[in-house]
Design goal:
Mean pLDDT: 83
Number of domains: 3
CATH class of the largest domain: Alpha Beta
Oligomer: single chain
Number of helices: 11
Strand content: 15-25%
Largest sheet: 5 strands, antiparallel
CATH architecture of the largest domain: 2-Layer Sandwich
Radius of gyration: 52 Å
Number of strands: 12
Distance between the termini: 72 Å
Order of helices and strands: HHHEEHEEEHHHEHEEHEEHEEH
Length: about 475
């Protein structure tokens, strides 16, 4: 046995065993004191009556003989009459007295102020007895003798042994039931824990289809449910990761193929054909920029995962960044026979933000809107000011997002539509950038109708503006 079972046996069961052992010892002491105290009370009661019997007598021996002969309990105890010289002269047994037997109680009674003393121990024969001796004095306080009561403790010891044995047997029965019930309880824990351990090992080795059988509807059952849920989430994440790697590999291969193809074309014939040369160089530059954008997106995602994305916050005109983002996408929209409708407001308050990162967000959202729109589709962009935010709404009339994919659309690597190009991390990066600006990025979509993305960026509060001005002044002083 090892692990939880062994610890339980050494700790809990060991403690219970010690407690029961202490209780049995305490019970043995109590039950022995109970029986021995009862016997002592009987002996002491008998000895007290001697005061009245020997009070008015001058003949100690004859009175003692009469007392012994008429003693009603001589079947249960032995009486000894001891003369003033300390010799046993009469016994209730009828046998000759054994004057070699030690009598510690007699010696103690001679020294006692109360004229009596008790003792229990073993006789020379080995019998366990209790004895009580009361010394008798005459009216002139002269010792005339003593009466000694001796009771065998064997019957009391037998009853004490039976009582202790019964308690020990009860303790053993209790221990047995505790052991059986605890063993069953421990198995109900150890067995699921072993299965959890084995399944967790499989999951760690990459088997995300491994599942744990739920044995009980308790904390262990909840743990099984959570590990099964974790395995499912890890499996989904692993699948998304593999799809991401495949998607990024394809995204990287496309511009690289174009760059290589046009570079070879230019090398073979481009220097003799100016038109071919210009077209080839243009495509190479365009595909290089596209390739650089993919790499930057992956790097941004890596920074987000490691909490290393740093924003250069400043007071900016958010309309200017949105205008530039729309301008960068208009030519593409025109080539793809798609339309961007933008009703620019006259003026809006400044916001505190990183203009490059916000422009990256706008470009990403507009790019997605165009990407998922059919030829002839319209992408509508509206901007408005609320009490606390600048709200930018970008809506398309594309294919939309199925309801089951919508809650996960901002998760890393997630792509609702695997047929459209993209790495699946653009929205995750955009959402994180907006979150770092203390804003919100919400997506609402209806399949077959279109998608609406709402970006909310908070307005500058007075304390933020003062802090920003102080930072700017500090930068100017340092420069």
């Amino acid at each position: 046995m090892r692990g939880i079972t062994r610890r339980w046996l050494f700790n809990t069961f060991g403690v219970i065993l010690i407690i029961l052992f202490v209780l049995v010892i305490a019970f043995a002491v109590i039950i022995q004191n109970f029986y021995y105290s009862g016997i002592f009370q009987v002996l002491n009661g008998r000895s007290i009556e001697l005061v009245n019997i020997f009070n008015d007598t001058d003949d100690f021996i004859s009175t003692s003989r009469e007392y012994v002969e008429n003693f009603p309990d001589k079947e249960h105890m032995e009486l000894m009459v001891i003369n003033q010289d300390g010799q046993v002269v009469i016994t209730s047994t009828g046998f000759s007295p054994d004057n070699d037997q030690v009598m510690p109680d007699y010696s103690a009674a001679l020294q006692s102020k109360d004229h009596y003393a008790d003792w229990h121990g073993n006789l020379s024969s080995g019998e366990n007895v209790m004895a009580l001796t009361r010394v008798i004095y005459d009216d002139n306080d002269n010792r005339v003798g003593a009466i000694r009561y001796v009771v065998s403790l064997e019957e009391a010891d037998r009853k004490i042994f039976i009582s202790i044995s019964a308690v020990c047997l009860l303790g053993i029965v209790i221990l047995f039931f505790i052991f059986v019930s605890s063993t069953y309880f421990l198995r109900s824990i150890v067995r699921p824990v072993k299965e959890i351990s084995q399944t967790a090992k499989k999951i760690a080795q990459g088997d995300f289809n491994a599942r744990i059988n739920k044995f009980y509807d308790d904390e262990i059952g909840d743990l099984c449910d959570n590990i099964n849920y974790m395995a499912g989430e890890l499996g989904t994440a692993d699948k998304l990761k593999n799809e991401f790697i495949s998607s990024v590999s394809h995204e990287l291969r496309t511009p690289l193929t174009a760059i290589k193809g046009w570079a070879e074309t230019v090398q073979l014939d481009g220097f003799n054909d100016k038109k071919t040369l210009e077209k080839g160089i243009g495509i190479i530059i365009k595909e290089t920029e596209r390739l650089n954008g993919i790499v930057e997106e992956v790097l941004d995602f890596s920074r987000i995962q490691q909490d290393r994305m740093v924003l250069i916050m400043d007071k900016i005109d958010i309309l200017a960044e949105l205008d530039e983002s729309i301008y960068m996408q208009r030519e593409r929209a025109h080539k793809e026979d798609k339309h961007i409708v933008y009703d620019e407001p006259d003026i809006l308050p400044a916001v505190l933000g990183d203009k490059n990162r916000l422009r990256q967000v706008f470009i990403n959202i507009i790019d997605n809107a165009l990407k998922y729109s059919d030829p002839g589709g319209v992408v509508t962009i509206n901007v408005e000011e609320t009490e606390d935010d600048i709200v930018i709404v970008i809506a398309d009339e594309g294919c939309g997002i199925p309801a089951e994919h919508l809650p996960k659309i901002k998760q890393k690597f997630y792509k609702a539509n695997q047929t459209v190009r993209g790495s699946g991390i653009g929205l995750a990066v955009a959402d994180e950038i907006v979150r770092l600006h203390k804003g919100k990025l919400d997506i609402d979509s209806v399949e077959g109708v279109g998608t609406t993305v709402t970006i909310s960026i908070p307005l500058i509060k007075p304390e933020q503006e003062n802090e920003n001005e102080e930072n700017q002044a500090e930068k100017e002083e340092n420069s």
